[in-house]
Amino acid sequence: QAKKMNVESLRSNQNANAESAEIRIAKAALTVCFLFVASWTPYGVM
User: In this predicted model, what pLDDT tens digit does every residue of 24-40 receive, in sequence order?
Assistant: First the structure.
């Protein structure tokens, strides 16, 4: 029982870490896209 619970908790921790890493990557990508659009907007207006 204890071994199974430890394995399940470790797996859930790994899944949580993977999800948080994916969220960080998504935030970074959105930030880069936003900065790209914001930096080129003045040239697009002219």
Answer: 999 999 999 999 999 99
